[in-house]
Structure formats: structure tokens, C-alpha cells
Amino acid sequence: MNSANNSNNNEKALEVRTHDIPIADAMTEFMKEGWAPSPLTGVNPHPSIPFTKIRRERLSKQYPGIRLIFPSGSLKVRSNDSDYPFRAHSAYSWFTGIISLDCVPDSLFVMEPNGSGHDALLFIHPRSPRDSDEFYKNARHGEFWIGRRMTLEETETKYGLKTEKIESIEEFLANKKDTLIIRGEDKHIDGLVAENEEKEKEFLNFTSLMRIVKDQYEIDEMQKAIDVSVRGFADMIRVFPAAISVPRGERVIESAFYGRARLEGNDLGYPSIVASGAHACVLHWIKNDGDVLPGDLILIDAGVEVESHYTADITRTFPVNGKFTEAQRQIYMIVYKAQQAGIAAVKPGAKFKDFHNACMVEIAKGAAELGVLPISVEDSLKPEGGLHRRWQVCGSGHHLGIDVHDCAHARKEQYAEAVLEAGMLITVEPGFYIQPDDMLFPEEYRGIGVRIEDDILVTESGAKIMSNALPRHPDEVEAYMAKLLK
Ligand code: GLY
Ligand code: MN
Ligand code: MN
Predict the structure, then answer these.
(1) What angle do CA 246, 250, 251 make, to 5 degrees?
(2) What does the alpha-carbon distance between residue 176 and residue 67 come to, in Å, rounded to a whole number?
(3) Engineered SS bond to 294: which of 16, 180, 321, 417, CB 3.0-4.6 Å?
């Protein structure tokens, strides 16, 4: 039995589908013949190859003599025989460079010790030959159903990895040796590898932390993701009039960004937050079913994931009708200043948490100026104070890359307590959220929520704002909207 047939999902639901029409033996025979060869043309080595090679060499040095396994993950069932679109595990993608369009569910990437280092081996479910019946009978893997997969040879050429059929994995793993796996992604393979919880946790930590400083390939892919996302923001503004004209207009805006994500990228990097009016005060508002009303602000947090799986993460807060009210602008400027201060604190040698602290100074000052902070700014900024955080309960940023919250298995001392280095890529995203029932504020302020989020590369000379093409200052935001809506 191969890994694909044993995957985490409901193969059974596919095998017994009541609406399928039985296929006669004569048809099965007939389908074996009369097919021309159909090789892919234009398969060239992928630009990620020199970079993934260096990543694997670093990994090999850390784990001499140990077999290392990275599952791509399996299809995840949405309902019955419908799956979610497949998205490979980030570590699998990072060590192989395989782009989304070429990823095959239930694949494995293996680093096999060879005495002096490791051999890189890929196990995939390749294109099924015309003499098996999978290509037209299997609704989950068949070429007639989901399209053509690459052959072993095509995969080797494109990604520079020795590639084998996933069917041979059980035999391969029967030769037991010390093994570490990213567990929880492929139940079948997990069952074939003895568990060592502590060592696997350390492995997950090490492989997550390896991604914390980006190489040039990653920086270039991130810039692509950001540039596509910026175009997606323009798409969204263009549909504001349409969004205002119907109930649940947030969905109109959400759809415009999704269209850009699918056109130029793989998908959304995370569910878009399209939060009109007081929805902006819900940090992860993804229902996006609200009306879009002139006079309100709309907070939009959205990022495109490009084919290499890198994602942007950008937030802007727009006045729906193109002009901020005085109260909206006042709150907006607190956040704007907080973000400026945060970005200024991003430099090599600074602590990761410094930019959050810099943001918080401005948030606390802003609250004090508005007369809602019951203690002094100084006292509020003390760890035992923190009252200004009533209006920004979350942090002010995170590492960004192949995951929107990248390097998530790093420990506190490696992340929040660590020092920034050139090549790190983070978001700076302060906000000021006045809940609609916050009676400390006069009515005109209640329900105003503002966040400004940019994607920042740490360079030797300080912060580079990779998402700078999207205006931030309120005057520039108004001018930008006017241009797009004229
Ligand atoms: N979009 C998720 C975040 O900003 O962290
Ligand atoms: Mn973010
Ligand atoms: Mn965000």
C-alpha cells in the first residue's frame, strides 16, 4: 500500500462515491492504448537550487549520521470528498524549493546520512503511466481529474534532487536508523518512525530557527509577494463604490484581493481581514460580512502568497469615502507616529522587542493626550503598568517569510528576547482600537480602529520598508484613493 492511499484523509469517501458510473472491463482495456508521449517542455533548473543546497548543507552539519524526514503533508478534508486546496508544509518547501504548482500531497523529503554528510532524496507520487488505471479512475490523484503531475525525471531536472516513487518509501525506511521527523504531517510515515519527543522538538526548533535570516532568493520572493499585494490593495480600493452599494460589502473587497492573489500568486497567505467600522476593533475579523458605509474607516489586513510560498502581510486603514474625519485622523496619527518610531528602532543589534516598546511609547502618549490614560505615560510604560495596552492588547510585529508568523517554533530567547540581524524580515504593525462600548471615549471616537502594518527588512543601515509603495501618511492615503477612484 502506498503512502498516498494511507494518507490522513478520507480515501474511502472517494472509493465509494455513489454518483460514479461503473467502468466496464472493455473500457479499462481500451484506456490502456492509443496515447502519444506527452513530455513537459521547458523544464529548467529552478532558481532556488543554489539556495536550498546551502540550507541543506547547514542542516547536514547539525545532524551528522541522522536520517531527517520532512513530509509535504496530506490533503485535508473540507467535507466528504472535497479537500482544501493543498499547501505543502513550510519546512518541506524551504528545504526543497518546490513551488506550489509542483507540490504533490503525501510527498517526503529525506536527508539520508551517507558517511560524510547526507544525500537529499525526494519521494513523490509521480505522473501515473497510461498502463495503470489511476490516470482516469482516481478522482484525487488521476491526471484526468486533477491534471498532470511531474515525472521523476522532470522533478529531478527542475529541483536538482534525486527523486523516487513514494511507493518505495516503506522499503526504504525498513532499513532502520536514527531518524528525526517533522511529526504530525503524515500519519502513515509517523507510524514508521520511532518517536523521540524531546529530540523532535529540538529538530522542529532548529529547522524553524534556520529561516530567521533570509537569503537573497527569499528577499526577492518576498518583494514579489509584497508587490503583488500592493496591486491587490489598489484592486480593493477600486471596488469601494461597489462595496458601498450592496449589503455585506466587506465581501466585495475581500474578493477583489483574492482575485489578485490567485492571478499573480498561489493564494492568500492568511485569511484577509476586511473590517469596516467597529469591526476594525476585532483583531482577527475574518467573517468579513459587514456593510461598508461612507464616513466609516475600513481596516484591511491582507497578503498574497506567491508560488514559492512566501507571503506579504500588510495592513492599511482607509476612510471609506476617501477623507478622514478629524477624530479618525487624530487616532490615525497616533498609530502613524507609533509605526514611525517602531520602524526607527529596527536595526542590527537592537533587540527584537525594542520596536514594540518604541511603538508603545507613542500609543501611551496618544492615549494620555486624548485624556483617557488614568496614570502618567511613564507609569503606564512600566511593566507593572501597561494601561495604554487597553487600546492595543497585541504585540507590534513578528517575523515574516514562508509563514506569515514565521519561525514560530523558535524559543522566546531566540525570538522576542533576541537581537535583530541584517537579513531578518519582520512586520511593524501598531494599532489603536477603541471598542464601540469604550465609555472612556466620547461617542465620535467609539468604534474607531486603526492599524498600519508594513514589511520591513533589517539591513546593515537600518530598516528597509519593502511595502513602501503603499502610502501610509493620511494625506498620501487620501491622494492615493482619489487617484484610484477618479
Ligand atoms: N495578518 C496577521 C498579522 O498581522 O499578524
Ligand atoms: Mn502581521
Ligand atoms: Mn497582518
Answers:
(1) 85
(2) 9
(3) 321
**Is 0.70 surpassed by the pTM of this model?**
yes
Residues of the chain with pLDDT under 70: 1-16
Establish whether residue 301 lines the binding site of ligand 1, counting it when its CB lies within 6 angstroms of any ligand atom. Answer: yes
User: Is the shortest distance between the CB of 302 and ligand 1 below 6 Å?
Assistant: no
Reduced DSSP (H G I as helix, E B as strand, rest coil) percent helix, strand, coil of the chain, to 5: 40, 15, 45
Q: Please tell me what DSSP assigns to residue 127.
A: P
Secondary structure (DSSP) of 289-351:
-----TTSEEEEEE-EE-TTS-B--EEEEEETTS---HHHHHHHHHHHHHHHHHHHT-STTSB
Provide the 10 A C-beta neighbour count for residue 401: 26
Percent of the chain with pLDDT over 90: 92
Ligand 1 pocket: which of 268, 270, 356, 451 to mutate (most atoms <8 Å of CB)?
Answer: 270
Strand partners, 121: 110, 162
216-254 b/e with 16+ CB inside 10 Å = b? Answer: ebbbebbbbbbbbbbbbbbbbbebbeebbeeeebbbbbb
At 83, list the grid cell: 479537500
Q: Is any ligand 1 atom within 6 A of the Cβ of residue 51?
A: no
Distance in angstroms (rounded) separating the CA atoms of residues 392 and 342:
14
Residue 265: all three cell numbers together: 500568486
The end-to-end CA distance of the chain, in Å, is 61
Question: Which amino acid is residue 22, in one-letter code?
Answer: P
